[in-house]
Design a protein that fits this description.
Two copies of one chain form a homodimer.
Chain A lengths: L12 H8 L3 H9 L6 H14 L5 H5 L7 E6 L5 H16 L3 E6 L4 H13 L4 E4 L10 H9 L2 E4 L9 E5 L1 H14 L5 E4 L11 H8 L4 H16 L9 E2 L5 H12 L7 E4 L2 H14 L8 E5 L13 E4 L2 H16 L8 E4 L2 E3 L8
Parallel strand pairs in A: 1-2, 1-3, 3-4, 4-5, 5-11, 6-7, 6-8, 8-9, 9-10
Antiparallel strand pairs in A: 10-12
């Protein structure tokens, strides 16, 4: 009490709360002019804010009085560790700015996504984050309408022709690096488990590339990166080595069994999420095959148990929290009035080399 | 179009949507009287509903016209797979009843929890689910106030003296079963990693039990179950074998190292969440110790990679989706008008025996 802000630089709402001897949430309510606050508490907080020179920033000025001080987030599956991590990054960043975050789940259903966006707009959210279930070439009228009403940032998946900010990892570069690591070890039969659901897999490289245009961008870009790496190594594309099925552990098991039973079987595998990885590991375990020694393996998403596996698994690490932080900061800047052209931010993923790649 | 409902029994909103030739979300909006719906679409949906004999249920009647048709959920950490699974169960069940779910995160901070509850009440949620950060004996005025305004169901953690429904697993029974399985294999030095943060660990059993009264109920009940199993097997309680620290992988590593370096070291370990399990596995890997053969191990939460581990790990499986479903059904029944006394629902957890328990 009576002490100045602990950190250098601009005083924060926590500094004001400490100086006024109240909780951070109470101070935020008093300064934000929302929620129930006693006149006495408001006076104390306002005096502390004045004494410390606390000023609300551009963001606060642009939050209208009727604003909900809330960001709306629409994701495909909140139980997927990828989205859980991203949402955590968004939530933490929004909270530091004094905004709450509400999350709705779509289960990859485009109707549910449109409904979720509508619900959030009815709740007067100040901005929207959407990991859309739509393919990159889909018309997405619900997102065009939403973007006309509030700032909108796309996360993980991009849509062509929608002029809004987006934050993704560089999926093509990540898949290219993972595939190249397997090819460099001498493998020529590298299986991909899996990309977006496209059945049957087009038998020609060009047709596959065309078909990818209508798919969700994340998976499509990973297939593109895989194809790029093959071409760079002059290894022909074989549709039997590309599983483009529904994303379940069981589908990954079936695909892995099929690739290992080919007359010229896969000797290396690239998995594009942790469901696919679990399916592959289940098949390898059942067949008594050891990653690295018998079948080489690179996986997407550096789940915490991958480094503890026997042997430790080589994985592509996506910066989940950083994705969420970047999304929230972009959105807060737009709410705060930034009006330069939309940005397409691509964060790099990192190939974490461990021991699951061996010689052919 | 024009066909009857596909399933037997009461027609659902999907049946109405199909008969009217519109999307489920549009049919829900038309019948629910919320959102923007053209008069023509509303007429079509209402005619289809009448033709099929679709009737809104007690829940729908009790949702007031100004209702948000939304359930609010407050959890400690949305990135924790346990809460992600529970939230998924809640979301799916609420959606089937035509309600949306908004989720707020508290990071186990009681101030943030109180703020989150306030925010959700301001948004006119029809009901609340809270996994509280409060200890079982805490006063929780924010939850008493909330329960006076809307139906409230506690999930995962209970609070004494708050007359609302709760849904948890039987944590004491689950920990007892896990500990007993280790004792039955001949182990007498069974370490617990970990319960609620209580430093230093009280050196006497009775004092530890008293201290647990003020802790979050979930962790406290697991320590109680562990102590019960020891007593039943006439194995003395040793505070050096109980790690009650912050819940991070690093803290679990330190605790495991300490227990394995005791003059009379732990020969078996019970972990109470997946962070603790990761910490234990990291230490075992570093020391070249194999679960089952060198140190026996039972973990809480049957994460999908546990059965693929080498050797497959014996785990306590919590029914995450069922917890969420039960919570949502209780809450919807209360919103629908059920007014019998509060229920404390305890779902059983299951000990999934695999190969990580060996002889002493």
């Amino acid at each position: 009490m009576g002490s100045g802000p602990a950190s250098s630089g601009r005083p924060t709402i926590s500094d004001v709360a400490a100086a006024a001897g109240v909780g951070r949430a109470s101070a935020a309510r008093a300064l934000g002019g929302y929620g129930a606050v006693s006149p006495e508490l408001r006076r104390r907080v306002e005096e502390a804010a004045a004494a410390l020179g606390y000023r609300s920033n551009a963001l606060a000025r642009n939050l209208s009085l009727g604003s909900s001080r809330t960001l709306g987030v629409v994701v495909a599956d909140i139980a997927n560790p990828f989205f859980a991590g991203v949402v955590r990054g968004i939530t933490d960043t929004a909270r530091r700015a004094g905004l709450d975050t509400v999350v709705l789940n779509t289960d990859e259903d485009l109707d549910d996504e449109a409904h979720a966006v509508e619900v959030l707009l009815e709740k007067s959210v100040d901005g929207l984050v959407v990991a859309t279930a739509a393919g990159a070439d889909a018309p997405v009228p619900h997102l065009h309408e939403a973007a006309a009403q509030v700032p909108l940032v796309l996360v993980d998946r991009v849509v062509h022709g929608l002029a809004v900010d987006s934050v993704t990892i560089d999926n093509a570069a990540a898949a290219r690096a993972g595939t190249a690591a397997l090819l460099e070890a001498g493998h020529r039969r590298v299986g991909l488990v899996w990309g977006p659901a496209l059945q049957p897999v087009p038998a020609q490289r060009g047709r596959l590339l065309s078909a990818l245009d209508s798919a969700v961008s994340t998976g499509a870009d990973r297939v593109r990166g895989y194809l790029d790496a093959l071409r760079a190594a002059r290894v022909p594309f074989d549709p039997d080595l590309v599983a483009l099925t529904e994303s379940t552990v069981e589908a990954a098991q079936d695909a892995t069994d099929r690739m290992l039973d080919l007359p010229d079987p896969a000797t290396a595998l690239l998995t594009t999420d942790d469901f696919a990885l679990l399916g592959v590991l289940r098949v390898l375990g059942r067949r008594g095959l050891r990653p690295g020694a018998d079948v080489s393996l690179v996986g997407f998403d550096d789940v915490p148990w991958a480094e503890l596996w026997s042997p430790p698994l080589t994985m592509i690490a996506q910066p989940l929290l950083a994705l969420g932080t970047e999304v929230a900061e972009l959105l807060l800047a737009r709410i705060g009035g930034r009006d330069d052209p939309p940005r397409a931010v691509r964060l790099p993923a990192q190939l974490v080399r461990r021991d699951s790649i061996g010689p052919r």
